[in-house]
Amino acid sequence: MPANKTEADTRIFIKMVADKQDWELNRDSELISILVSGLTVNYNRYGYYSCPCRDASGARSRDADIICPCKYCRPDQEEYGHCYCGLYLTRPFFATGKEPSSIPERRPEDLD
C-alpha cells in the first residue's frame, strides 16, 4: 500500500490535474474541503484517489472508472461544464460564474 496522503498532498494533486487538463477548480472552498477530505480518506483506505461521490469497492480494477479524474469527468464536462461532484469545471463554465448543479450519474449501477 502506498504511503498515506495528507489533505495538503491531495490539494496539490487536484491542482496538478486541473492545470494539466486546462480545467478550473470549483470556487466553493467549503466544497473543495469536503472533496479533498473524501479523496484523502479514499486514498488512505484504498491506495488510490477514488471519487468521494461514488462507492468504491476497494478493488482497483473494479474502481478504475472512478479514480480521480474519473472516466465520466470529460463527458460530464462536455455536456454540463463540470464533473459529477463539481470539483473540476471547464474554463468556459467557470467564466459564467454559475455554480455546478446536480447531473445524472453515468456510472452503471451493476458493474459485474
What does this structure look like?
The protein is mainly α and 112 residues long. The chain has one domain: Ferredoxin thioredoxin reductase catalytic beta subunit (Ferredoxin Thioredoxin Reductase), CATH 3.90.460. Helices cover 46% and strands 5% of the residues. It has five helices and two strands; from the N terminus they run αβαααβα. A two-stranded antiparallel sheet has the order 1-2. α1 packs across α2. The longest helix is centred in the middle third of the chain and has 18 residues. The mean pLDDT is 94.
Keywords:
two-stranded antiparallel ribbon; 46% helix; Ferredoxin Thioredoxin Reductase; globular; mainly alpha; 5 helices; 112 residues; single chain
Short description:
This protein has one domain: Ferredoxin Thioredoxin Reductase (Alpha-Beta Complex), CATH 3.90.460. The chain is mainly alpha-helical and 112 residues long.
Instruction: Name the average pLDDT.
Output: 94
Lateral arrangement of strands in the main beta sheet: 1-2
Distance between the termini: 25 Å
The helicity comes to 40-55%
How large a portion of the residues is in β-strands, by DSSP E? 5-15%
What's the number of domains? 1
Low-confidence stretches: none
How would you sum up the major sheet?
2 strands, antiparallel
Structural class: mainly alpha
Helix-strand layout with pairing:
Blueprint: H1 7-21, E1 23-25, H2 29-46, H3 60-63, H4 73-80, E2 88-90, H5 91-96
Antiparallel strand pairs: 1-2
